[in-house]
Amino acid sequence: MKEKRVAIDPSLPKTHEESFHSGQNTSVDGPIPCKNINLPRNQFSPGRDGYRTPTIEDHELHNNSSMNARHNATFSNNSSHVRLPHTPPLSLGRHSANPSSTSLAHSILDKIEWRQRIRHYTWTFFAVTMAWQTGGIANVLYTVPFRFRGLETIGVFFFLLNIVLFIFNVTMISLRFYYHPEMFKASILHPTERLFIPAAVVSFGTILLNISQYGPSRSGHWLNETVAICFWIDVALALLSSTGVYLVMWSTASFTIAQMTPIWIFPAYPLLIIGPHAGVLSQTVEQAKALNIIIGGFTVQGIGFLVSVTIYSAFIYRLMTQKLPQEASRPGMFVSVGPSGFTVAGILGMAEGAQRALPANFMGNTEMSALVLKVVAAWMSLWIWGLAIWFFFISVGAHWSCVGPNRMRFTMTWYSYVFPNTALITSTFAIGKAFSSKAIQILGCILTPILIAVWIVVVGMMIRAISMRQILWPQKGEDKDEGGFKGPRPARRTSV
Fold first, then answer.
1. For residue 388, what are the CA distances in angstroms to 5, 344, 354, 361, 440?
2. Is the pTM of this model over 0.90?
3. At what angle do helices 274-281 and 338-357 cross, to 10 degrees?
């Protein structure tokens, strides 16, 4: 039997195998000659000289090139499979039905019900309300040392707005799981979305923090007692959410260092706002409760910061071996600023509240103990504050190559431009107060209006992204298929 040969158009993209045998470079790092064959570094045996850890991009490049080659071969060999645009979705093949890989999907999904858009209302939307957005702005305004008439009113406005947005987020996420119950499990197992589940806990803790800041002067003793009880509830939720998310991560997936981003720190964030809240609350409740709150707050804050430091080391190693993250992931670099900033604000706040919280004859001399604690906390915080500033400059510098039109598409991680930097500003005010430095306090005051302007821009870009279907849309948000994870698909319609 005569072998039938099919002529292949050289303009067609080659599959990964064809590229391998032809010696074409398929690796971003460049191939290494091996017995006259150019082999990508990520396909070397581990331990061999020049080996590079495989990344998600390698896997996606291989899948996309193979899929394109199969599609082009089918198209050239069987013209009867060609389908006109806007044909019914029931006629789509298994690969072409993927809305992330074909332009046809955009025409099919051109008109999608809001119930289907709610399907993509992910946990990341709690970034709007957590400790560093509307609630964070209220926190910053509360700590501004140079007060003027109306400043507290502005802070109360952001505080109340935060409560409204939190209720809205809870309603929307509840509707998502009500209409699409399969998405609840998928949100826990998704490699990216699950990192943002603690944002809901952080939002709750932020509201408690704002109540402790703006509430006591406008209410009775009952409010402090209620918030003191809620403080311990927040501590329990913070520990459960943080350990729970990390355990799910380590039990359901394996990651390479190339996939590492500072967003991995995110599950520790519920622990990092316990200290600042304890510092504020300890100055309004009775002495016995204040001491317990400071002890609990200092312990939990230490857990959150030390967990963050261990992930810092992985992030630095990732930068050393894999260079900067992709442009779309650069906003997440600012997450590394938050742990140090909130730890400084928490330590100095609790040290200030210790003077009235410590019992009589504490460690032999209450006044001396409180003074030593305050001095040690102040000088120790300088190092941690400096670490926050260092990560801030690294994050800003990493965005230099991203400047320009159409370089970065909006994602909810853009809120990282705001929330960690509120921690930097509040810690700046705390350092300025501890060392009676007006220069440092003025620096914080300069950064405050800049932060509010950035917040306005990010909110505006979010609204624009929703209208342009860049978020709340299939395969466009943090719930999209990635890293081998594919979420549940909505039921197909039987009528077109």
1. 63, 9, 25, 37, 15
2. no
3. 30
